[in-house]
Design a protein that fits this description.
The structure is a single chain. With 85 residues, this protein is mostly helical. 75% of the residues lie in helices and 5% in strands. It folds into two domains: 54 residues; 31 residues. Strands 1-2 form a two-stranded antiparallel sheet. It is elongated, with a radius of gyration of 22 Å. The termini are far apart.
Length: 85
């Protein structure tokens, strides 16, 4: 990653259709794709930090873990029933 003016340059690969969508949105907003992406990243990072701070991310991770455990238990029960037949 190159550094420019005290900032880090980050390169990402995006699907061409997504780039087209971003370009259209940037044009509608009257800003460059570069500025649009910076705005999105800043906004989403702030939102993510807020969600983490109030416990939403922790809760969502716990819920996903709970659902995975339930799915595994259901699958195990189905295997046991199949073996019993």
């Amino acid at each position: 990653m190159a550094k420019t003016k005290g900032k880090k340059m980050v390169t990402i690969e995006l699907d061409p259709k997504l780039v087209d969508r971003l370009d259209k949105l940037a044009i509608n907003c009257g800003i460059s794709r570069h500025q649009l992406m910076k705005n999105f990243i800043e906004s989403c990072t702030s939102e993510g930090e807020f969600l983490s701070k109030v416990g939403v991310i922790y809760t969502a991770k716990k819920m996903m873990n709970f659902l995975e455990i339930g799915k595994e238990a259901f699958q195990e029960d189905a295997r046991q029933e199949k073996l019993a037949l």
